Amino acid sequence: MKRRGFDWRRMPEYRLLSIAALIFLYAPLVVLVVLAFNSNRVALIWGGFSTQWFVKAFGNEDLRRAAMNSIIVAAVATPVSTLFSIPAALAFERGTFFPGRSTGEALVAMPLIAPEIVTAIATLIFFEAIGLHAGLGNVIVAHIVFCIPFAMLPIRARLRDMPRVIEDAARDLYADKWQVFYRVTLPLLAPAIVAGATLAFVVSLDDFLITLMVAQAGSTTLPVYLYGMLRLGVTPEANAAATILLVVSVAAVVLSTMLARARAVKA
Amino acid sequence: MAVALKRDRALLLAAPALITIVVFMLLPMAIALVYSFLSPSPYGGVQQPFTPASWVRFFYDRDLDETLIFDTTYLQIFSRSIILAVLTTIGCFLIGLPLAWYMATRPPKMRSILVLFVTIPFWTNLLIRTYCWVLLLRDQGLVNQALQAIGLIKQPITFLYTDGAILLGLIYSSLPFMVLPIYGALEKVDPRLIEAAYDLYADRWAIMRKIVWPLAKPGVAAGTLLVFVPALGAFLQPDILGGGKKLMIGSLIQQQFTTSRDWSFGAALSMILMIFVLGALMWSAWRRRHPGVSV
Fold first, then answer.
1. Which of B125, B137, B138, B146 is nearest to B168 (CA)?
2. Looking at residue A267, what is its pLDDT?
């Protein structure tokens, strides 16, 4: 019986489908970036290369304030959520069973599971009920909550993959528990902590819905401000502002991947 | 034997994260549940007395003489959202499975590059990704310009503000959530299994059905949840690509808190959505424990 050769590694149709899928993922982003550099005021007719819309976007004071708010929120939410998630990751991965542990794990995953709109309105209701009007503070608290599970993801994954024998060896060599943590566990965890912090930073920077509902006047972040801008119509200035945010997110993700990889090799 | 953290210390270590989530997430949800049983106050917020009116309103409309009439307005929005979320999941699966399979069969170096490629849009701002489609789908957008340039159409086709545009936006933004878990499952497939099957005269379909599919299944299950739940509660895609006219649950809830100022009804809607999501999660957990049952 003669059969057509079949190599599970080579499937030309899968290659084509995959290339098509990647084009589908990237084409819209490329279009945005290209149009942001379009000198024509009519956003969709090409009038030559220009950076004037970026200059205009940078000159927009409200836009600058919103960007500043975004950075402040992410700069506070990132370290706090990361610092909370390191011990929690250790407890879930290295701890013996403690009462309510699986409940605890489910609770920590809650911001990942609940639809964002539900989290957003629950947080809004809560702040109104307790009368918390702390401007940016409200936004920061909301961001810390949903950043925790993201910051914890890579740390838990790393702890799970890390052979425990390394820590055991340190203990055999008479390291006390703090020495084990500071000289063995923490350095080995470092790339995962960096990756987790980056995730938290990007997630905070990108959050729209929760911030939209929770933020009071004056404490809007960049995505919320952009949303307002886009509601008024497609403008080259909005394209430029969107491109800036796009580039920052992409740079953070690429940087974190490279950092995690570089340190993992060294470790 | 590894020394495990002692019970009290482990609890102490998890405390900051747990307390934060309980105080700022679980408690707020409980308050939202209470709010759903109160009456709306005209300027936002709620007032006494306790009443199930907001829940009743989901199914019934009040007539002029205060009789209740069964009203499907909100049920329609819910079923539209569910249908769109299901279609999004199916669309992501159809595009995602071949992509994940292709990624998983590349050499290791190529694999990590491809993972990075799929991850980047995943971490890119959702608002921006959705907005990009406005640039493409507008009447004067690139798709219409291209179609007119090649002479396929004379008048621009209205793509924006349709269910199709919302679906496209949902599939676009959810795709990485489907690809990455399936890839994660397929990456661990031992290629020797497939070669062995091939040696035993399994054809391509048999290999797919009997080896790849069972191994990919946990990834597909995870991906389905990761796509379905956010798609169900989506706000930005129906708002931007649907023009706010084609409501989904997410935009309906948001509206209750902004323009309609009916916090009680908004809270009731959120609780209904939450119950639905928890139901889906429990069903999937149950299925994982009882893999023999095929539904």
1. B137
2. 47
Distances (CA, A) of B60 to A27, B37, B68, B216: 45, 16, 6, 44
The DSSP-derived string for A215-254 is PPTT---HHHHHHHHHHT---HHHHHHHHHHHHHHHHHHH
Q: What are phi and psi of B189, to 5 degrees?
A: -65, 130
CA distance A128 to B74: 27
Q: What is the ipTM of this complex?
A: 0.88
Say whether A8 and B240 touch across the interface (CB within 8 A). Answer: no
**pLDDT, tens digit, for every residue of A61-110?**
999 999 999 999 999 999 999 999 999 999 888 877 667 778 888 888 89
Residues of A in contact with B20 (CB under 8 A): 84, 144-145, 148
**Residues B175, A25 contacting (CB under 8 angstroms):** yes
pLDDT at B168 over 50: yes
Lowest-pLDDT range of A34-48, B80-94, B163-177: A34-48
Express each pLDDT in A120-130 by its tens digit: 999 999 999 99
Strand partners, B46: B40
CA-to-CA distance for B167 and B185, rounded, in angstroms? Answer: 26
Asked if A75 reaches chain B (Cβ–Cβ under 8 Å), the answer is: no
Q: Cβ contact (<8 Å) for A206 and B236?
A: no
User: B137 burial class (0-12, 13-18, 19+ CB within 10 angstroms)?
Assistant: buried
Does B238 lie at the interface with A, CB-CB under 8 angstroms?
no
Distance CA B222, CA A54 (A): 40
B243 interfaces chain A, CB cutoff of 8 Å? no
Query: CA of A185, closest CA in chain B: separation in Å?
Result: 13
- The greatest distance separating any two alpha carbons of chain A, rounded to the nearest whole angstrom, comes to 79
* A135 touches B45 (CB < 8 A): no
pLDDT digits (tens, 9 = 90+) for B15-48: 999 999 999 999 999 999 999 999 888 776 777 7
